[in-house]
Amino acid sequence: MRRSSRKGLNTPKRAKDMRVKLADRVAYVTGKLRTLGFQSITLATYRPGPTSLDGYYRLQAVKRDFRAFISELILGGSIAKYSYTLLYNERAILRYDNAPHHPHIETFPHHKHEHDKVVPLPDHSVDAFIKEVKSLVKERPLT
Question: How many CA atoms lie within 13 A of 60 on its CB side?
């Protein structure tokens, strides 16, 4: 019997043995945002590649004074590039990405922007980002 799990689609531990289909990935991330109470989830960009294991997407989601942006480039079933951003009152308070512009970071190219600091990012999964978002949303006041 074959088991199927959507957990950890890009966790560092499973990235090599897990192949992600673009449509499944969008559904997975959308579901994660919904569990946090984000509404008005919009698929702003969806560009399928030559196979179901290739493509690019960008999601936008809103919850009160928070806006989340998730974008991923998937090549051959692996997440090649990503950018996860959380805004509060239109100001970026958390960003994960793997743009290769901080070579001094020990987890290069993976890094995190917290307010105005750039720090290492050992777990660059969307699940880790969602976990941090959950914590940040919980601690901010309703406005």
Answer: 6
pLDDT along the chain (143 residues), means of 10: 38 58 97 93 98 98 95 97 96 96 95 91 96 89 57
Backbone angles phi, psi at 99, to 5 degrees: -65, 135
57 located within any domain: yes
Q: Are 125 and 28 in contact (CB under 8 A)?
A: no
The answer as to whether 93 is a domain residue is yes
Q: Find, among 67, 80, 64, 86, the residue nearest to 25 by Cα.
A: 80
Q: Is residue 63 part of a domain?
A: yes
> Which token pair is 45?
């960009």
Domains contained in the chain, number: 1
